[in-house]
Automatic annotation (TrEMBL):
InterPro entries: ABC3_permease_C, ADOP, MacB_PCD, Macrolide_Exporter_MacB, Perm_prefix_1. Residues 352-469, 758-871 form the ABC3 transporter permease C-terminal domain. It is a multi-pass membrane protein. Its main location: membrane. NCBIfam families: ADOP, perm_prefix_1. This is ABC transporter, permease protein.
Amino acid sequence: MSWRQLFRRRYWDAERMEEMESFLEHETQENLTRGMSPVEARRRAYVRFGNPQKVREEIWRMNSIEPLQRLMSDLRYALRSLLHNPGYTVLAILTLGLGIGANTAIFTVIDGVLLRPLPYAQQGRIVHVVQTEQHSGQQDIGLSVQDYLDYRSQQHVFTKFAEYHSMLFTLLGTKTPQRVVTGVVSSQFFDVLGVKPVLGRLFTSADETRSAAPVLVLSYVFWQKQFGGDRSVIGRTFAMNDRVHTVIGVLPPLPDYPDANDVYMPVSSCPYRMDPMTIRDRDARMVTAYGRLKPGVSLREADAELSLIAGRMVKAWPKSYRDARDFATHATPVKQELTHAASPTFFALLCASGLVLLLACVNLASLALSRQMRRSRETAIRLATGAGRWDVIRQVLTESLLVALAGAGIGLGIAAGGSRLLETWAARMTPLAGGIHPDFRVLLFGVCSSLVAGLLFAILPAVLAYRTPLTAVNDGGERAAGGEGSTRARNVLVALQVALSFVLLIAAGLMMRSFYNLLSVDPGFRPAHVLSMQLDLNWTKYKKQTAQLEFFHQILDRAEAMPGVESASISWMAPLNSNMSPINGPVHVAGQPVRAGVPAPVVDFETASPDYFRVLGIRLLAGRSFLEIDGPKAPHVVLVNARMAHEYWPHQNAIGQRIQPGQSHDWWRVVGVVGDVREYGLNKAPSATVYVPLDQNPIQNAHLLVKTRSSPLLMANTIAAMIHQIDPQQPVTQVRTLEQMRAAQLGTPRVTATLLSLFALVALFITIVGVNGTVALAVARRSREIGIRIALGATRENILRVVLSQGMKPVAAGLMAGAVVSLFATHAMAHMIFGLTPDDPLTFVSIGILFLTVALVSCVTPARRAMAIDPMKTLRDQ
């Protein structure tokens, strides 16, 4: 049979009807002429022709594709059946939609961040060369220029090898001075990444020479934002560091890696990088290195050669590598570096959403099993009237797949909205979040998930339909099909739902308690009414320390004279600012000599003006704070935090003690002890910290901290205008309040805890619906038994006890299984929680009590229905 015949069936059917009607009419007329009555004439015509409807059906069947016809018939029957039971249908579609939506939304994030290839050629060959010092706790200490030159000249495993570091410079030539994040790179950097420009050209070895004219390459984002994608930007000139730079190229859209750079310059254009002191100083580790592995070279081979080169460096310059036993070099794949911070959280959420979908399937299997038990008489009648057992199985599968596809539609809608919210959250952990968007892969995942889910929850009802006995026609069906095996299956499904929900609730409970622990942690300072502004000085304009100090003192004097300002300070960092890295280094403590071969202790150094501690509300525990007399020519003084005082002078008074930074020949005297501050994160313990007066240690990159009497942001423009009065070319960036910085620290754990809690609540709802439905079905099946018990003298309390016992037994079994699984599963998220252990007893007990209470309440309604059964009606029915 051809497709042409299939699609012309209705036309031919009408044509055959006309022919049959014409024949019947002709036969009727013939019979009338023979003297028959009209009724008898028509009857004899039908007798001769046969049943017209049967003939039509046979012709229709001959012009049909049988499998397709059978499928359409199954779909129509399934649709009628589902519409006949709207409560089950709506609940099933919504349950599955929530599970598929959660999974698809998380998959959208994982696909955009972890599964998609990077926009670099042969990404697997690009590595970051990392030097570590375990004794200082630093996993990446960076490279000095000399380190980089040694690796470059001695390596044989890379086809391309490049250096990189990022700095802030002022770009002049736009409408207003722009403080731009500048990537300073060697000429092979873009060759290592394997990227090509969308406009112009990239750097060559000629651009790297000292005599080369300064040039710039723009990032795609900066080109679009600052110049609106104007292609004539190539050849334009801009002033930077008192030199004229020419734009030679524009990069394609790329992740913000290694940093969110606005522009790139060759190393020859960077005044700091080309400073002879920077080039010679092997301890000035301010660059990083990237390489492209040669074809056939493995990561292990690269690590071995880098370690060999590092060993030669340690032997040649032992003073620059304080402890060779703790110094190591290795190569890290760029893909791994871009995703390592986000992967554990994404994996945890994927597991949680997967559990929700599995739970939805288990719940739907329980609902579908109960529904099939109620339909067992209908199934038996179909079997008795000629339907095959495969026919009834096919019907169950068709209904399940219809529910699954409808759930997929709802789930994809949920995923489309959820992925937009998740993109903002994921951007805090990886620069690859910009690639998150639903596409054909996501659509395919959602549809495939729904089809697999539909098949999963159809298995048990299909088996029950296959095993339905023909005797179910006479004995009510439900009892015949719903024997002990079906009851056990439903109880197992309920226990499985409870176990899965309990695991999710425990994970959500731990994350929520961890979040509240972070929320209540004392950061060591008072963030209220404090405004932070980043001030990065022009490297050439403020090269002298006297110029730096004069500029900062003018800002402080004018800021403190402004109405509404209580005090102001200058410091290297602002607390909780994730955009800045701490300055740390070795320190020698007077009276505590370091043994040979043992590295000197490493502490953090913070530069601060006298009012720094007053602005932040950091407590002075002993001694004094910085004073105006602690100037450039005064004796060197420092303050230390409580942790350092406790570690280095546990049984002594820290005041008056002396320390010597590793690169200094002077001894600095401790004049005060202040409280500990969580500088680098609310979840990170305070480090041993030395505070140095601004006048004795001037800095070029700084933060202005202003304590205000009213809302700090209302004064931001006024303070920025004051700074521009002093220096019109000075950019003011990162204008935020400390409360905003604290909120940003809490952002990721808040969203993670919220998502897990939402998954857990959905799981709890699905489980309670399943428990309630199972108990209600059990009551309906045992209504005769319960009525007889009541007639024989059982009290209402006895009936309540029986029903609650039957409902709570699988719940208790599921809770015990879930508790065991949770004890193992939660250890995988130990790194994500703060202030409690993965097996926290309070969380386990609280969630267990909550679950038992909610499950008990869900059993009450069917139990009350059982208590209300009329025994007389039951006996009459018997």
